Amino acid sequence: MVKRLTLSPILWGVLCGCLGFAANMARFSLGTGVDILLGNVFSYFAFRAFGRRSGLIAITISASATVLLWNHPFAWIIWIVEYVFVTRRSKIAAPARDVIFWSLIGAPALFLFYGLIMGMDLLSMLLVVLKQGANGVANIVIADVLFFVLFTRRWIHPTEHGVSSISLRESVVVLFFSLVLLPTVVALWTTSRGAYERLSDESQQTTMRVLREAEVRYNDLVDRYFQNIRALTQAYLDGADGAQIREMARTLNTGFERFYVQVKPDHIVDIASSTRAEIHDERIADTFQYKFPAMRPLPGTEGGARKFQWVVPFEIGGRHGVTFTIVSTSDIQRILDAATFVQSNSALMVLDADGKVVALKRNAIEGHWEQRVAELASANQLLSPVRVGKLIFGVPAMVMESESVLALASAPLKGTNWRLVSAVSLEKGVTSLRRQQVFLLFQAIAILNLAALVAVSVSRTGREISGDLINAIEKSTESGAVVFPKSITRFGETRDMAARLLSVHRKFLREKRELDRERWRIEQIAAEPPLVIYAYEVNIDAGYRVAHFQTSPSRQKVYGWTPDEVPNVGSWLDRIHPDDKEAVIANLLKTIEKDGRSISEYRVKKKNGEYVWVVDCAIVGAPAENGFRDVIGFSMDITELKVMREKLVQAAKLSTLGEMAAGLAHEINQPLQAITFAAANLKYDVKKLPETEITPKILQRIERIEHQIDRASEIISHVGIFGRATPIARELLSVNAVIDAIAALARPMCLDAAIYFDVKHPDEDAFVSAQQVMVEQIIMNLISNARDAIGDRKKAGDETPGQISLQVGRTPSEVLISVEDNGTGISDDNMRRLFEPFFTTKAPGSGTGLGLSISFGIATELGGAINAVNTGGGARFTLIMPRVQRATA
Amino acid sequence: MKEVEVLLLDDEIEIADEVADYLSGRGVKAIGLFTPAMLEDELGRMEKVRVVVTDLRMPGRSGFDFIRSIKEKFPDRRLSFVVMSGFISPEDVEAGRQLGVVDFLRKPVAPQELMDAILPLLRGS
């Protein structure tokens, strides 16, 4: 179809209605006035294809043909009601609904209309009801078949108003109905037509035969009568008297008593009377002018018993005149009786020139048709056989067919201008035909009911099969045998269908399993809190317009922000740390415009106000037609990772520095060693010189060299420890003993600096695996730092007495030795670099910057750590070492 | 002239010379050498040598190999070995003690430190 023809449902309805009207007018006659009308097929087709309203318009138009055909509106009304009933939404198939309609509504309505209003006989009514029902159902079935064929061939396409799908049950019902009903209608039509034609032919022949026979006999009679009357006239002219004439008439068996002869216009003689008196009667005086035999009504006898004047002109022996006789209808009847034979169910009558019945003879036939036949005959309309029945609403009603006759009239009879009319009753033939039709329809309806049962059963079987099939398939697993019930395996098609469905279902199950696993994985990934997936669209050309910003629900978990609080990209950017924001935005813009992908790390504010480090990876797609590009990506809280990484970097830095320092120390060792002894030798050599040559400056310089050598040596030896040039030999140490030893060293030092020093350790001892000198070195270094910090504070003008506390704490697995002071505390910047080698806050020359880094290195090597915190009033350093039991050491 | 009592081995001749000069200046006759072969030669000629001071890490040969070699070549001599090195691991200490090393000095060694280590060894003879 190149181009779909589109008309509104209303127009389709009108079109189908017109087609239906034409088809109804071209009715299929079943011969006895029963017509099959198939025009409503178009209306029901319109209902199927274009919707209920369209069909209603169509049926209103097409059914109106019956008004023209049958001259009454009842069929029209019933058909419209039928349409409304049948096309209601229902589970019952349309043909079955129609059967219900005709049973419950159609038949009673027909009985009412045809029976009570039109006065139809029972048999006809039964036939009409059955015919109407069958006709109606047939229309629907044909329409459905037509629609189904066109629909399944895709020659018509479902419209929004019409039917878009066909149910199995409906198809089966229509199939069975069409299998039964359509042949029935065809059979009805062909057999009835044949039977009716036969009936019609037989009746015509009968009529004609009766008429011809009657004509012949009548003509014979008239001929003989004319001969007789001529003989009587001859006798009269020859001088026979009245008694002789009477005797002669009796002998000839003329059937008449009186004969009149008129040889002059005003001279009429009753030749059969004894007196032969002249008659003067004005009514019959004009018969003299007749040149041909004629029968005419006796003037003045129109009412009551009619009489006729039968006139026969003569010319005998040069004398001419007329002979006539007066006859009554009973005389004619007698002639008719004598002259004709009438078989049963037929009638014969004589009509005069005015169309009035002169005589009638009938045999077992009702007579209400006579007047109509007489009218037709006098109008010259019965020259060939004509069916004559009652008119209802002005037309010959099919319902009265049983009471109609087939009538035929003769030409005007010789010697009169009368006609003979033969009539044959159709009642017997029609009734018998109708019985046959009713019987046939009954059979069809009985079979239809069976068919409906079969259809319901078949469609139910279909439903059961599909139910069984679905059950079996639903129970099937990805592998393993499936036993299908017999209802499925019984039919090849359903077996094949089951196998294919099973394969499809198994494929579905496999894919579903994969999908489930996939979904499970994604759920697991999505459930992990630190990851937030996001997506949005951005249009560069529209001023970086952002649309469809979405984030995974994990965002709230990770950052605390609800979707309402961060509804778009801008509000996310606003929460980035001010130090990072500019770089992040620049990077994002660059990514969107050029790279297509980016990874950035920045700090972002959580809902609780805390900043966390995130890594943000984004991928930008190519622009779509609307100019928007997809941006998808994820951000992840990497704060912990970042801290760990910083520690690692620190450790790596320390390690590298350590190795470098160790290498450097070794390289410097050698020259330093040479210088050391060279300086000592120089001093020795100088002292051996004469005193006059030794200036104080020389000695001062030598001492300065020695001092610097000492300083370098000290650094080198510290670096050696830091670089683990000398691994620590471990021993089991009593913490309390170590602390006591340290206290002994530290106390005098603190006393010198006017610092209060106290020691707290639990009575119960604890043990660590270490070298005492190392632990002492670390703690002494911390104490000396504490002392310097207090000194710095005092230098800044704060004269609060200094205090250093040495404390021992323990956990089941660790020993904690802390040194707390009330000095300056440690600034944030310094806190970060605290353990870096060569980092010092002390004045140049007064510290190597290696103390804490060496301590850190030692502690790490001992399996422990050192940490530092500000206490508010100063700083606290804690050496943490693994605790060991005495027994295991 | 006093007999040589201390031999010093260091791959850097400056160190060996200065250390020997220092000891000699303080009444301990010492000679500094910078290859093991030279030291072995000297040891063979000098009967009075009592102390051998050696570096541990030298090109071609470790200090311990050198000590072992001396002990094999001069089984009858009563010699005290002192190690003077920039890097002394606990394993070195262990290995040295088994070879009869009496003292370990970590470079840079202060002159007095060296004197303190050697004098008792000489007096003990």
From TrEMBL, chain B:
It holds the Pfam family Response_reg. Keywords: Phosphoprotein, Transcription, Transcription regulation. The modification 4-aspartylphosphate is found at residue 55. CDD domains: REC. The keyword Transcription applies. SMART domains: REC. Residues 5-122 form the Response regulatory domain. GO terms for biological process: phosphorelay signal transduction system. InterPro entries: Bact_response_regulator (IPR050595), CheY-like_superfamily (IPR011006), Sig_transdc_resp-reg_receiver (IPR001789). Transmembrane segments: none annotated. The keyword Phosphoprotein applies. It comes from the Bacteria. This is Response regulator. It comes from Parvibaculum sedimenti.
